[in-house]
Design brief:
The chain is an alpha+beta fold and about 450 residues long. The chain is about 50% helix and about 10% strand. A hairpin with a 2-residue loop joins β12 (about 440-450) and β13 (about 455).
């Protein structure tokens, strides 16, 4: 068996502590020491080769998918998403499931969500009280959760809808800080000691959510009317090449995946975007000017095509990508990456964060500069906030649309300010990277955008 490259000398238990408490420091320090490839050995995880060179990432993403497994590297997610989630599957099973789930997230179906996103954004933002501070991440989570619930179920009211929202929020809060996230990595903490234990509480919340999902599936089947445009209806109607529908457990695990991953990540990206826009006045001015100059601000799809707004969202996901790593890949046979031979069962972890911070691709990578995305086009191996290859995030197009429409809706209707001018530092939130403290902001007035003039209303 070939020796893995640049194995870290730090004890595995200390690597685990660093990876949980200061993941960006862990990545950057080791990149400075070892460069494009280094091997992490973290207690509780198999050794994996961290890669951040676009050529290496391209070779991993474009190699025949049958040569790599990815789903089995995500065992850490089964407690949240179940064993039938698309994130856990591999091989032909993954390919079939992905084919079934793709239609609701692309093409004409995507356009049906545009006005929904704008309406929900306006509805929730209208509840702000002038000059009263709020945590932007909580607001964004409210918006994205309502969007995904309505898009999946077509539900905007009712007992089931009201029950789902707090249960999902509680599950996400269980991993809201580095300390709380530790039970994802430490197996001895994955014990059910009753409602007072994080693991026990998470398990019970998950069971309640699955009961609600099953009740909704049963209701749809009982009524026999599958005529809606929501995602659940499309999933119930979907058939594989053998004519078989998805089973109840497959449906519930996929619904849980969409609910869990489909709003948490987008809420984080949006929070960062509002932070940068209001941290940098020149960025805010350019965004507002472009939105105001849009010929038809009532058409969500035209808003979504605005170049500077798009660049702001791209730069937001570059500088602090929500996911630091793509799904890992495990070689099912010997493989060559950048001229180096690797044995069967070698695990690779393409690192989104380190790739996005390469000086040779992004000069001054710590600087938030949307213009870089207007000046050149980046390959999917240089810019990969949604992963890539056969494991590209299935909802990436919806997430991008949602970011742009939420920003445009709120920025064109409200004047906001940061509650604190101190720089916000990223911190671990479960398996993702989120702004520490959630970004305190406040609404200082309503905004009327008319013709080419922007009027601030001091009162509400």
């Amino acid at each position: 068996m070939n020796q893995l490259p640049n194995e870290l000398k730090t004890p595995a238990w200390l690597q685990l502590f660093q990876w949980i408490s200061d993941p960006l420091g862990y990545l950057e320090n080791n990149y400075q020491k070892y460069g494009d490839m280094f091997t992490a050995r973290i207690v509780g995880l198999s050794p994996f080769v961290m890669v951040s060179h676009p050529q290496a990432i391209q070779e991993i993403f474009t190699t025949n998918a049958q040569k790599f497994d990815a789903g089995r590297t995500n065992g850490i997610l089964t407690s949240f998403l179940g064993t039938e989630s698309i994130a856990i599957l591999d091989g032909s099973t993954h390919k079939r499931r992905r084919k079934l789930l793709m239609p609701p997230f692309h093409g004409e179906r995507l356009q049906t969500y545009g006005q929904l996103i704008c309406n929900i954004s306006q509805k929730i933002a209208s509840q702000w009280v002038q000059n009263k501070p709020f945590i932007m991440r909580q607001v964004m989570q409210d918006i994205t959760l309502e969007v995904i619930i309505q898009a999946i179920f077509g539900l905007s009211e009712g007992e089931r809808y009201q029950q789902l929202k707090p249960l999902l929020a509680e599950m996400l809060d269980s991993v809201s800080s580095p300390v709380r996230s530790s039970f994802l990595f430490l197996r001895f903490l994955q014990k059910d000691w009753g409602n007072w234990s994080p693991w026990g509480q998470m398990k019970r919340n998950r069971e309640k959510i699955y009961d609600l999902l099953q009740a909704e599936i049963d209701r749809r089947r009982r009524e026999g009317k599958l005529e809606g445009h929501d995602i659940l209806t499309l999933m119930l109607l979907a058939r594989d090449e053998m004519g078989n529908p998805m089973t109840d457990i497959e449906l519930k695990d996929e619904l849980m995946t969409l609910l869990f991953a489909g709003h948490e990540t987008t809420a984080t990206g949006l929070t960062w975007a509002f932070y940068w826009i209001h941290k940098l006045p020149e960025v805010k001015e350019k965004v507002l000017k472009e939105i105001e100059g849009c010929g038809d601000k009532e058409d969500p799809m035209k808003i979504a095509k605005l170049p500077y707004l798009t660049a702001v969202c791209q730069e937001t996901l570059r500088i602090y990508p929500v996911a630091m790593l793509t799904f890992g890949r495990v070689a099912k046979s010997p493989v060559e990456i950048m001229g180096q031979q690797f044995a069967t069962e070698t695990m690779f972890a393409p690192c989104i964060y380190l790739t996005h911070h390469r000086e040779d691709i992004y000069p001054n990578p710590k600087q938030f500069r949307p213009e870089r995305f207007l000046e050149r086009e980046y390959s999917p191996y240089e810019y990969l906030p949604f992963g890539g290859g056969t494991r590209l995030c299935i909802g990436y197009a919806l997430a991008q649309l949602e970011m742009k429409l939420v920003l445009a809706t709120i920025l064109s209707n409200y004047h906001l300010e940061l509650g604190d001018q101190k720089p916000i530092k990223p911190q671990r939130r479960g398996l993702t990277l989120a702004p520490g403290g959630g970004v305190k902001m406040m609404m200082t007035g309503k905004r009327i955008m008319k013709n080419s003039k922007v009027t601030e209303l001091v009162g509400t």
